[in-house]
Fold:
Amino acid sequence: MKYLGFVVVAGLAAVAVLLPAPAALSPEPSVPEEVASVAVCAIEEGSGRTTAISVLSTVDGPVSLTLFAGGETTGSIGHETGSSGSITIPVVDVSAVGTVGGLVEMPVASSAAGALVSGAESMSSESCSSVAHPLTFLTGATTASGDTFQLHLMNPYAGEAVVELTVNSEAGNESNARFEAVIVPPRSSHIVDFTELVPGRETLSIVIETSRGRVISVGRQAAAGEIAIWQAVPPAQDWFIPIPGGQGRREVVVATPINADVEYQVDFYGPEGLEEGLLSGVMPARGRATIDVTELSDKPVALRIISTAPIVPTLWIESEEGLSVTTASPRSANRWLLPGAGVPAGGRATVVILNISIDDSTVTIRPLRRGTTVRTLTVGSDSLLELALEAADGYLIESVGETVVLWSGHRSQASVAAIGVPVSDE
Structure:
């Protein structure tokens, strides 16, 4: 396939651009401005669910979590990652706040934070975002069959943000005045309830374009008591998604915000190795395609999806254990942090490691907690492994070759899947 070039709207790439945070959010920053890294997390506390924030770092250093809502700080707490390079902060220790945003300050750029939301019969996890991009895209949501979907817009900054939403479904473009000029006040969150605005839609795709200020957006899907959260991300043309093995429905929903036909190709990493060009097709303008992974294999597999214009692929896993959703990764790396990764109480967890290198890769798997055992193993070229995890605040995965990493967790009637956070070697 001949691939066409396309320039995506650029994000605000530097963490230094994101913060320092407004004084009202963090009157006494816990780390020096020149080395601090920050992330914004979607918080849900109450109504039978509680959130814990996992913070991982390659160094021992100070961490702070500040909650913001209604234009002000609603609580703040400071910690140290300690010698393990990790800390988990229950939000209930800060404040009982409902659905809000959380600002995490971390020691260095090679750090990551993630939110793990737990209920009696639900569990979800997503990494916290360190960059507020001016244009992001979210796909695969649904308001059909009694399911509910909300878009959580978070603005931790001192200035007001204005957001334009472009919404498409199987019915075409969805027109609603409440999608236009959505205002997110400073240091506040705004919830857009699509269940109320566009009920009965099988599949929703949403472009979030910030015309003034900056926001970070997270989708929140509820189905049969289970909750899944995932980030809206900038579209790109090259994506990787490792997929754990198992029964139930495993699908990758691919959609494009582009108002033109988009060609795509799917390379398949399976039990027999890499099969390039296993699938291909054409998505219509602002359309979508679904890849049924269950039909390909019930073993752990991975996909690489390449396209002629920007797209976003999202993995959906639905089984008796629950619902989990995560977005693919637009990059590979030699070092990954998995905030929140570990065995849920009474459950199990695994990590899927995809080696995209042409050579075998030595991989080190390091649980971030005291007294843990570091494992070193080899992942063959253009292949993947799924391994069991142990209890930890999260994991550091390092490799000689380029890899892509995803973790999943399961307990009774609840499951979670989350792509890792690539970090630099600095």
